[in-house]
Amino acid sequence: MPEMPEVQGLVEFLRGRLTDHAVTRATVANIAALKTYDPPITALVGATVTGVERHGKFVDIATRDGDDTAPHLVFHLAKAGWLRWYDALPSTVIRPGKTPIALRVGFDDGSGFDLTEAGTKKSLAVSVVSDPAEVPGIARLGPDPLDPAFDRDAFAALLAGRRTQIKGVLRDQSIIAGVGNAYSDEILHAAKMSPYALAAGLDEAEIDRLYQAMTETLAEALAAASGKPPADLKDAKRRGMRVHGRRGEACPVCGDEVRSVFFADNSLEYCPTCQTGGKILADRRLSRLLK
């Protein structure tokens, strides 16, 4: 799943290529991906892109039609979605149900992009709105973790009183925007903290360590994503991971074996020596079988 650093990389890439270009086509190939109907997606055609921004993991393409503000194209790539960029948009006809393409958008210089989604579980979401705040997922976002106003004390205030595992807190978009499964693993590894630690139980030193790990991990990932085209962002993310997706490999800090805990539709990775005092966390799938 693309998270804040990769989405910011997409935003910077699109901003540099789309600003001041007019939309010439917007074709929906998977109607389930389109979450709005008013304004219609055809309202984008003829409008000129004025900017591209990020809200959490959402991409927001703003447009203007003449002197009037036109709709925003907002999308969330979910777990298996991605953006495929073309300097010259293909002329092939999109056949709904026969392709992973959910949306195709073209521009007046001949360029364009497809939003694609792999797998059978379709969660990619596209909205055409007058204001990004009309998208429910954006309206409920918590603060951006790299916003200068989101300092250590603001972070501590969010954790206070939450009898929730810290892994879940970091992933909850209504608490902190933009962090997902992969970077929460990386942040907790850098902070030397168990994913099962309760947010409300962290002492001041642990909050300091977690806040520093969060800001440094995300800042490094943002720097790695900056300037890369969409086709390179996924590989850059994988290369930067120290524990996430590296089950069975050696921890780069202590050399212990990176372990996983599996859930219904995802997993977390951690280093026992660095994070849990050597304790191996129970595999949830096996625990269910033993009940």
TrEMBL record:
Its cofactor is Zn(2+). SUPFAM superfamilies: Glucocorticoid receptor-like (DNA-binding domain), N-terminal domain of MutM-like DNA repair proteins, S13-like H2TH domain. It comes from Microbacterium invictum. Residues 242-276 form the FPG-type domain. Belongs to the FPG family. Residues 2-114 form the Formamidopyrimidine-DNA glycosylase catalytic domain. This is DNA-formamidopyrimidine glycosylase family protein. Keywords: DNA damage, DNA repair, DNA-binding, Glycosidase, Hydrolase, Lyase, Metal-binding, Multifunctional enzyme, Zinc, Zinc-finger. It catalyses: Hydrolysis of DNA containing ring-opened 7-methylguanine residues, releasing 2,6-diamino-4-hydroxy-5-(N-methyl)formamidopyrimidine. PROSITE patterns: FPG_CAT, ZF_FPG_2.
